[in-house]
Amino acid sequence: MKRVVVLGSTGSIGRNVLDVVRSHPDAFDVVGLAAHRNLDLLRAQCEEHPRARVVVTDESCRAAVEAEPSLRARCIGFSEAALSELASGSGADLVVNALVGFVGLAPTLAALTAGIPAAVANKESIVAGGEIMLRAASVSGAAVVPIDSEHVAIAQCLAGSQIEDVDRVILTASGGSLRDRNAADLGQVTVEEVLAHPTWNMGAKITVDSATLMNKGLEIIEAHWLFGLPYSRIEVVIHPQSIVHSVVQFVDGSMLAQMGKPDMRLPILYALSYPDRLKSDFGSSLLEFPSLTFAPVDEKRYPCFRLAVAAARTGGTAPTVLSAANEVAVAAFLQGRLAFGAIAGVISAALDAIPAHNASSLEDVMEADRATRRWLHQHHATPTAGSGR
Question: What's the pTM?
Answer without folding.
Answer: 0.92
